[in-house]
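Wait, mind explaining this?

_____
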Amino acid sequence: MPITPFKLERYYAKYEFTTRYMLSSSDCEGLTLNELLGMASKESLSRWQNLKLGYTESQGHPLLRQEIANLYKNISADQTLVAVPEEAIYVVMQTLLRPGDQVISITPTYQSLHEIARSLGCQVVPWQIRPAASGWAIDIKKLEKLMTPQTRLLVINFPNNPTGFLPERAQLDAILAIAAKHGVYVFSDEMYRLLELDPATRLPSVSDVYEKGISLSGLSKSFALPGLRIGWLTTRSEGLMQDWLTFKDYTTICNSAPSEILAIIALQNHERIVARNLEIIRRNIRLAGEFFEKHSRLVAWNPPQAGSIAFPKWLGAGSVDEFCRDVLEKCGVLIVPGTIFDVSGGYFRVGLGRENFPQALNQLGEYWRGA
C-alpha cells in the first residue's frame, strides 16, 4: 500500500527554516557543539579528537550502548540497538508486522507510529486520549474492548506528543496487564521521558517492566540534540534484536561515527542536560500560563504533565487552521494546528523548550492587539 504523506513533516518542510518564530517546536533549545564538548571528560574528549571516520558497528558503539543501558534497570548493552529515531520505528514495524495484523495505536500521536503499520496492510485501530476536566485522560476499559485475536501490537506514547499527557503508574500497569493477557507486543515511544515536571510521576520504561515491550528513545527531545540523529530501541524480547539488525542492513547499515561519540558525551552528562532543559520548560510554562490567562477569551490553556509540548484549545472566531495560517502570514509565528494530528475541536500545539519562547509569545500578543 502507498504510504500517506507525513502531514507534520511536510508542514515543517514548508515553513520551519523560513519562519522567524517557531511556537510549536517539540524539541528543547539545541545545544551547541562547544557546549557539549565542554561537558566531555578527558577520555571522551580524546576519543572525539582522535576519531577515525570509518564504518561503525551496526548495533552501535559498545560504549554508547552501555551508556544507554545505564538509563534502564533491566536492559543490557546487548539489548540495545542504536538507530535514527524514525528509522527505528520503521525497522520495528517492518520486522514485527504482516498484512492483516491488527495494531492498536494511542492517538493523537506522531504519525509514523501508526501510518507505517497502515502502509503494511495492517488494520490500525485508534485508542484515543480524550479531553477531561483535569486535562486529558485515557479509557482503560476501552482498550480491553479493542483487543481481538488478530491484535499483534499496541503502540503507546507517554509522555504524549502532542497533548503532554502522562498516565499514572497504575494505569500503565493496567495497560501492560491487558497486553500480557492477549500476548500482544507493546511499542512504547518514550522520546520525551525524563522531562516529567514532577520526577515522582516518571513511568518506568516499558522495556524494563514488560517482556514483550519495545521502547524507543533518543537524543532529539529530552537531550536537545536532534541534529545528531541518534536514537535507540531497547527490548528483553528474545529474537527481535537479530531481526532488527538484519533489516537495518537495508537502511543505514551503521550510524554516524561523530554522532556516536557526541552521544556518549551527552549520555555521560544526561542529568545536567535534562536539568537545563527542564529549567527552560518550567519557565516557559509559567509564561504561557500568564499569557494565555490574559487571552482566556481566545485560548483555553492546558499545561502539560510532562514533556516539552502542550495542546491548548482555540476559542476565537474562525477555525484553528485559519488562526494558525493568519498568524504565520502576518507576524511570522509558526503554530501547528491540531488538524495536522487529525484532531478536531480547535486544538493547537505549543512548544515549550525554546529560549526565544517569550519573544514568540510577544509576537502573538502583538497580533491579537492589532486584530
